[in-house]
Amino acid sequence: MPQDIYDKIMMVAKRRGFIYPSFEIYGGIAGFYDYGPLGSQLKNNVENLWRHFYLLKDNCIEIATPTITLYEVLKASGHVEEFTDLTVDCCRCKRSYKVEDIIEKGLSVEQAIKEKKIICPTCGSALQDAHPVNLMFATTIGIGEGRKAFLRPETAQGIFTNFHLLYQYSRKKLPFGVVQIGKGYRNEISPRQGTLRQREFSMAEAEVFFDPKDKTHPYFDTIKDKELYLFDNEKEWKMSVADAVKKKIINNQALAYYMYLTQDFLLSAGADPKKFRFRKHAANELAHYATECWDAELRSERFGWVECVGIADRSAYDLNAHIVSSSVDMYALRPFEEPREVTIKKVVPKMNILGPRFSGKAGKIKEQLELMEPTTAKKITMTIDGESIDIPKDCYDIVEAKEKQIGEKFVPHVIEPSYGIDRILYFILEHNYVEGKKKDEEYTILKLNPWVAPIKVGVFPLIGDDKLISIAKEIDSDLRTMGIATFYDESGTIGRRYARMDEIGTPFCITVDHDSLTDNMVTIRDRDTTKQERKKIEEISSYMRGKISY
Q1: N or C: which end of the chain has fewer CB within 10 A?
Q2: For 482-501, b where at least 16 C-beta lie within 10 A, e where not — what string?
Q3: Each residue's pLDDT tens digit, 153-180
Q4: What is the pLDDT of residue 537?
């Protein structure tokens, strides 16, 4: 069977140090991959380009939170109930499958179940009894009883549970965005798409908090005339960002802005614009937390259109859930023009009852009760030091009082762009993989954007002459001191060295020749055009910096 582009890329990726199968000496396991020396640097460069877009262009802030997440957090967020796939088990070959992965094309999951058209792809048996399976990896924190927890399925919850602190940090002004890059985990039932469907994966997520009465974006006017590549499940077309919002194809400025930012990032990273589009989720596709969602999809020769980024309007779902579950004040404040005197209801703890009944926990219970909205105080259950505690009605009063208020509380809405870094990295490789011939020999070029290329410059002496080697090594050292990733190579013909650099995506090569000894100049070759130009040695560092900077 002839190799397709995926097979070729994965062969090059393994041979040249981009991607390795994990635990290969023990037979490996589906859904896990390692990044080699070049893959790790490519991944770092993609993530740092993403940071450039979100931290510098959009002025977000970045945090880092644990990959292990408490059960209570993911119970409140809905993941314990909703983070599932419909699964069937084959008794004959002892394998499990995700239903939507093995049914006939054009057949819905509901139809396949009703018409009993679920067939085992391994042995051909008819499969029944489809059932939901939670895809989170469960664990326990501590020895003995410990506390129930999961490996996080997304980085977002670490941002939501810190909202009250981040709101203070941002001086209580909306909108503001918080980003996080890190690992997520999904215990896939039968991962079958190589690096596109992993059980441990890298995510880059932004949670941008808005007043629900004002989902405009302060930078919207800078991109409103740019075009978006849209797909409505029937046809593809281009439309300006402003028109998409005006015609309610996209419901608000904030969502549209982050769609364009995503498009700009992906194309800058090296995605082919001819193989890129945004696809809107139908109502029956929406996640349990989303009111509107668009997927940025990239096209693969083997796998077709694949979601690489989801941009969702999560409304107030998550913050509301955590307010109810934790009883912590995670509201924002919409200021009044003038303070107002209003009659309010308050929860007043009875310490004479709380103290004797709950002893050491009474103080923490009092703090949570005072922060609680009376509307949520009908049946109160709160978590204190990992223990779920019911608070009886005789432990508090609900009283009316007059109070001066400077504003009204509300729960912010969230726009979330969520990026699958591993998928993006694969598509950068596929979309920039070019085959050709040179002198009747197969020749491969990886046309990576200099911004993300793992090696920016190859540095060569033309031949193994000590004087040329000395100059070349000094240039190589100077470039690395300037923060420019290089690869020094003095083995083989100059043509072979160029070919090795082309295959790993190195955009520029510098050759020191005999003329360099007298004119103090070197030859710089451009990978994509193969054009060569002479530059003075003292100008190289600043020249290369200009070529690879954002």
Answers
A1: N
A2: eebbbbbbbeeebeebbbbb
A3: 999 999 999 999 999 999 999 999 999 9
A4: 97
Cα within 13 Å of Cα(252), Cβ side:
22
Report the C-alpha gap between 252 and 229 in whole angstroms: 17
Pair 306, 342 in one domain: no
What CATH code is carried by the domain that includes residue 402?
3.30.720
The total of structural domains in the chain comes to 3
In a domain, 269, yes or no: yes
Grade residue 214 by pLDDT with cuts at 50, 70 and 90: very high
pLDDT of 1? 60
Per-residue tokens: 233: 């499940």
CATH code of the domain containing 500: 3.40.50.800
| Residue at a domain's end among 385, 410, 435 | 410
Structure confidence at residue 8 (pLDDT): 95
Q: Are residues 181 and 300 in the same domain?
A: yes
Residue found under tokens 């983070």: 83
* Range(s) of the domain holding residue 264: 5-78+153-317+415-422
Are residue 464 and residue 533 in the same domain, yes or no? yes
Query: 169 vs 162, 173, 204, 207, 406, CA distance in Å?
Result: 11, 9, 21, 15, 20
**Is 241 inside any structural domain?**
yes
The answer to whether the beta carbons of residues 455 and 505 sit under 8 Å apart is yes
Tell me the pLDDT tens digit for each residue of 374-422.
Answer: 765 567 888 888 788 889 989 999 898 888 888 999 999 999 999 999 9
Nearest to 186 by CA among 173, 197, 170: 197
- 326 found inside a domain: no
Please give the share of the chain, as a percent, with pLDDT higher than 90: 71
CATH number for the domain that contains residue 196: 3.30.930.10
Give tens-digit pLDDT for 317-332. Answer: 999 999 989 889 999 9
Q: Are 240 and 227 in contact (CB under 8 A)?
A: yes
Assess whether 361 and 285 both reside in one domain.
no
Asked, for residue 145, whether it belongs to a domain, the answer is: no
What b-and-e string marks burial along 446-480, b requiring 16 or more CB atoms within 10 Å of the CB?
bebbbbbbbbbbbbbbbeebeebbebbeebbebbe
pTM of the model: 0.88
Tokens of 21: 């199968």
Query: Looking at the structure, do residues 527 and 384 belong to the same domain, yes or no?
Result: no
In this model, does residue 77 exceed pLDDT 80? yes
Tokens representing residue 260 in the block: 């364009």
Peptide bond into 175 cis (omega under 30): yes
Q: Which two tokens stand for residue 119?
A: 């067939």
Q: Which of 297, 329, 291 is nearest to 313 (CA)?
A: 291
Q: Are 30 and 194 in contact (CB under 8 A)?
A: no
Over residues 416-442, the mean pLDDT reads 93
